[in-house]
Automatic annotation (TrEMBL), chain A:
GO process terms (BP): mitochondrial electron transport, ubiquinol to cytochrome c
Membrane topology: Single-pass membrane protein
Functional note: Component of the ubiquinol-cytochrome c oxidoreductase, a multisubunit transmembrane complex that is part of the mitochondrial electron transport chain which drives oxidative phosphorylation. The complex plays an important role in the uptake of multiple carbon sources present in different host niches.
Keyword Transmembrane set for record: yes
GO CC, one annotated term: respiratory chain complex III
Lineage per the UniProt record: Eukaryota, Fungi, Dikarya, Ascomycota, Pezizomycotina
Subunit structure: Component of the ubiquinol-cytochrome c oxidoreductase (cytochrome b-c1 complex, complex III, CIII), a multisubunit enzyme composed of 3 respiratory subunits cytochrome b, cytochrome c1 and Rieske protein, 2 core protein subunits, and additional low-molecular weight protein subunits.
PANTHER family: CYTOCHROME B-C1 COMPLEX SUBUNIT 9 (PTHR12980:SF0), UBIQUINOL-CYTOCHROME C REDUCTASE COMPLEX, SUBUNIT X (PTHR12980)
Organism, as annotated: Apiosordaria backusii
Pfam families for this protein: UCR_UQCRX_QCR9
InterPro entries: QCR9, QCR9_sf
The name this protein goes by in its record: Complex III subunit 9
Keywords tagged on the record: Electron transport, Membrane, Mitochondrion, Mitochondrion inner membrane, Respiratory chain, Transmembrane, Transmembrane helix, Transport
From TrEMBL, chain B:
Intracellular or extracellular location(s): Mitochondrion inner membrane
One GO CC annotation: mitochondrial inner membrane
Protein name per its UniProtKB record: quinol--cytochrome-c reductase
Catalyzed reaction equations: a quinol + 2 Fe(III)-[cytochrome c](out) = a quinone + 2 Fe(II)-[cytochrome c](out) + 2 H(+)(out)
An annotated Gene Ontology molecular function: heme binding
PROSITE patterns: CYTC
Domain Cytochrome c: 96-267
Species, as recorded: Apiosordaria backusii
Stored PANTHER family: CYTOCHROME C1, CYTOCHROME C1, HEME PROTEIN, MITOCHONDRIAL
Essential cofactor(s): heme c
Cofactor comment: Binds 1 heme c group covalently per subunit.
Taxonomic lineage of the native organism: Eukaryota, Fungi, Dikarya, Ascomycota, Pezizomycotina
Length: 61, 322
């Protein structure tokens, strides 16, 4: 417990860094999860679901 | 004195019936003119005024009827509410339908209607692949930059260009359409009450022939959904008019539904992203709200659960605190 305290909460700059890093990491995780749910709700409807029918080669768009 | 002399003329009016005796009495006792008015006459006056007011309102309605600014025909038939899937909170456009709708627009509507706010680039990654969009753009010519002699040459279209308009200007469009201007369709879904429902109803709502008694002006076609019921656009969609590349049967209503959804995309291409962002915002704010409620209750618990007890001094112990 005190290790945690010393590492993060003791100094303002470590606390600030932890908040920023935490926000960044949370945002990435949250976005990924939400986009997965979104794609599940809208499966088959979005362009990425039908693109393969029309794209001729894999390297364009 | 002044007040009394002001009131006197009114009394003089009443005196004709009430008699002079009363007048002098009243003048001496109070300055209120109406206190002696009989309740019966007041009631009759109120009833008469009410009857006149109600009667004139009734007369007005008798003369002018339920006066609306517009007749129902001028208003247009209200469109049916359809359960559009893409209008649900958490649903995107069906991009396969958008592709079909774009095909209908290109093959049918684009000969009269412009779609001037949609560039080729916005079709990419939503309706067409890059190659398809580039090929489509190159089918049309656009003005190039002025050359050395200041002349403007033509160049093939590119992705940054906007979809070409069928007519060079509004006058030409009117001239070709019997004086009626086919409006630009880019924002049509947002520009009409009823949005998608209205456009779908309009496109599919042409009866085989106008109902008996309906007056249809020269060069107009009867459509009950169009305000005024006479529209300068004839019915354009008929079964099998286009051939869908995905082999969906091209019925009138299928084409109308696809082109309507496509026009909704044209008016609101950001809808998919907007709804996805909205979902994220709603989820995160409801979690944060629940957390803040919990924290508030946690922090206030000691205050909310304390008890203040009054312990009255007992007999003979009144001098406890001296």
């Amino acid at each position: 417990m005190s290790a945690l305290y010393n590492a993060i909460f003791r100094n303002n700059y470590t606390m600030l860094g932890a908040v920023f890093a935490g926000a960044f990491a949370f945002n990435m995780g949250y976005d990924t999860l939400m986009n997965k749910i979104w794609d599940h709700i809208n499966r088959g409807r979005q362009w990425k679901d039908i693109r393969h029918k029309y794209a001729t080669s894999e390297d364009d768009e | 004195m002044l007040a009394r002399s002001c009131v006197r003329p009114m009394r003089a009016f009443a005196s004709a019936r009430n008699g002079a005796v009363q007048i002098t009495k009243r003048a001496a006792s109070s300055s209120s003119g109406s206190s002696a008015e009989s309740p019966l006459r007041l009631n009759i006056a109120a009833a008469a005024a009410t009857a006149v007011a109600a009667g004139s309102v009734g007369w007005y309605y008798h003369l002018y009827g339920n006066s609306h600014a517009m007749t129902p025909a001028e208003e247009g038939l209200h469109p049916t509410k359809y359960p559009w899937v893409h209008e649900q909170w958490l649903k995107t456009f069906d991009h396969q339908a958008l592709r079909r709708g774009f095909q209908v627009y290109r093959e049918v509507c684009s000969s009269c209607h412009s779609l001037s706010r949609v560039p080729y680039r916005s079709l990419v990654g939503s309706i067409l692949t890059v190659d398809e969009a580039k090929a489509l753009a190159e089918e049309n010519e656009y003005d190039a930059e002025p050359n050395d002699q200041g002349e403007i040459e033509k160049r093939p279209g590119k992705l940054a260009d906007y979809l070409p308009s069928p007519y060079p200007n509004d006058e030409a469009a009117r001239f070709a359409n019997n004086g009626a201007l086919p409006p630009d369709l880019s924002l049509m879904v947002k520009a009409r009450h009823g949005g998608c429902d209205y456009i779908f109803s309009l496109l599919t709502g042409y009866p085989d022939e106008p109902p008996a008694g309906a007056q249809v002006g020269a060069g107009l076609y009867f459509n009950p959904y169009f305000p005024g019921t006479g529209i300068a656009m004839a019915r354009v969609l008929y079964n099998g008019l286009v051939e869908y590349e995905d082999e969906t049967p091209a019925t009138t209503s299928q084409m109308a539904k696809d082109v309507t959804e496509f026009l909704h995309w044209a008016a609101e291409p950001e809808m998919d992203d907007r709804k996805r962002m909205g979902m994220k915002v709603l989820v995160i704010t409801s979690v944060l709200f629940a957390m803040s409620v919990w924290v508030k209750r946690y922090k206030w618990a000691w205050l909310k659960s304390r008890k203040i007890v009054y312990d009255p001094p007992k007999e003979g112990q009144t001098k406890i605190r001296d």
